[in-house]
């Protein structure tokens, strides 16, 4: 679990994060959404310790990040997996070398132990016949699987994903979303995803926070976002006719379901 308490971050006297508080629970896919410039990346980087916040506290399972010693901070970093935008694989390395990289960097495991673990995660993310290939020789979807495998190879407690769907076709994007969600549940990871993808919001948004001008303007889950009347959320999420139609259709179905349930209860 990551607890965020009243985080403020400024650049040159201008506040970009204006007192954000939230809780990212363990075993859940937590999504950060908001317009361009709303502060999502700065927030993610602040959580990762790349930006130092001006005030407030970030607690990783009770550990206040800013109060940790250098060694404790380094140890905490080894508990974090990261899926970067565009995958960020090493072009000159094979798939298995890419995945093995964090284990070679941050652990003292033997080569045999490393390869055992690498093959375990390769199986888990269903990368078939790709071990010896270079990133340029596999599809974008496969590259994302490699990025996910590399992020989880060291058994992270926390998984950060920056736009994990960017550049993927809609079908592959959903497959990758589902894979991240399955892994989150299976291994009890606290997963935080920065996304622009409204399919992801509706599909895997177990806890969604909506940022507006550096303020947490709304939070809820994928069901609540369908029914919210928060004007800022509605304006942002349902800005396209297509999503408006999807919203109306789901609301209509939900109403019908509720009516049916009430009727059934009356008859019982
Ligand atoms: N290093 C920096 N120095 C000064 N200002 C910055 C810095 N990084 C971000 N900002 C400013 O902070 C604000 C929020 O930027 P941020 O990148 O977090 O937005 P975002 O919501 O991630 O946008 P996008 O969806 O386009 O990536 C912007 O006004 C940006 O110009």
Automatic annotation (TrEMBL):
<dbReference type="InterPro" id="IPR003439">
    <property type="entry name" value="ABC_transporter-like_ATP-bd"/>
</dbReference>
<dbReference type="GO" id="GO:0005524">
    <property type="term" value="F:ATP binding"/>
</dbReference>
<keyword id="KW-0813">Transport</keyword>
<dbReference type="InterPro" id="IPR003593">
    <property type="entry name" value="AAA+_ATPase"/>
</dbReference>
<keyword id="KW-0547">Nucleotide-binding</keyword>
<feature type="domain" description="ABC transporter">
    <location>
        <begin position="2"/>
        <end position="238"/>
    </location>
</feature>
<protein>
    <submittedName>
        <fullName>Phospholipid/cholesterol/gamma-HCH transport system ATP-binding protein</fullName>
    </submittedName>
</protein>
<dbReference type="Pfam" id="PF00005">
    <property type="entry name" value="ABC_tran"/>
</dbReference>
<dbReference type="InterPro" id="IPR017871">
    <property type="entry name" value="ABC_transporter-like_CS"/>
</dbReference>
<dbReference type="InterPro" id="IPR027417">
    <property type="entry name" value="P-loop_NTPase"/>
</dbReference>
<keyword id="KW-0067">ATP-binding</keyword>
<dbReference type="GO" id="GO:0016887">
    <property type="term" value="F:ATP hydrolysis activity"/>
</dbReference>
